Amino acid sequence: MPNAFFVPAGVGDEGYERVTATEHTVSLWAPTMQHGAPPSALLVRALERVDAREDTRISRVAVDILGPVPVGDIEIRSWTERPGANIELVVAELWAEGTSGTARAVARGSAWRMRTTPTDDVVHTGEPTMRPVSEGIDNTFGELWASGYLDAVAFKFLTELGVPGPGQVWARPTPVLVQGESMTPLERLFSVADIANGVGAKLPIDEWTFLNTDLTVHVFRVPQGDWIGVSAETSTGPDGIAMCAGTLSDELGPVGRIAQTVLVRRR
């Protein structure tokens, strides 16, 4: 199996790029669907590339998972929704064939892309700093958490799962995003970010499912290095709906925040 989440699969009839998901993308919740992280990173890849400009970067990404993203062929579509000299909105969608045989959008991402300018002299971080990677413990999410995606990521845990307060872990994807390519810093960030609701979970997975339907990430600094830190905690309401919120970091410190809507169900 290729050491990549996706392999190139040519161009479709309408000229859209196509890729094929590998087993490294398989979700915890079902063997036929992808974990949310690889398709999120694939959307970010498209958002960075569409009408690309060297003087801009992505500042916020909102991903909506419109249905199970299948472990199979994926078509990537992207466009500029709102062009601008300083601020622009770019959109990308992942399309796949449904059970009826008709193609449909299975995930959508939108991003504010802003023109950059030097602000080195006023840098400030208001987010808490995680303990370093060197203090993490090599571990996995356990037998109940085994999946193609989780098995393809190296973890160093700073806390145990389910502890009071935020769960904290350093993570490093071992495959590349697309075979034959190096990951950009934001692709790497989003190839991990979606684990936040698992890191911040307080419910035992043998009794509950907690599937996120989206993720919104604000990035105030482009991450550096291979390791991504996730510090997150889930708040659960009385009616089966929860929210996970947390901080994303690299080894130099925080780089942004993530929020997810979570559907909670008893098994």
TrEMBL record:
Acyl-CoA thioesterase-like N-terminal HotDog domain span: 29-114
Phylogenetic lineage: Bacteria, Bacillati, Actinomycetota, Actinomycetes, Mycobacteriales
Protein name: Thioesterase family protein
InterPro entries in the record: ACOT8-like_C, Acyl-CoA_hotdog, HotDog_dom_sf, TesB_ACOT8-like_N
Domain called Acyl-CoA thioesterase-like C-terminal: residue spans: 147-264
Pfam family, one: 4HBT_3C
Gene3D superfamilies, A to Z: Acyl-CoA thioesterase, double hotdog domain
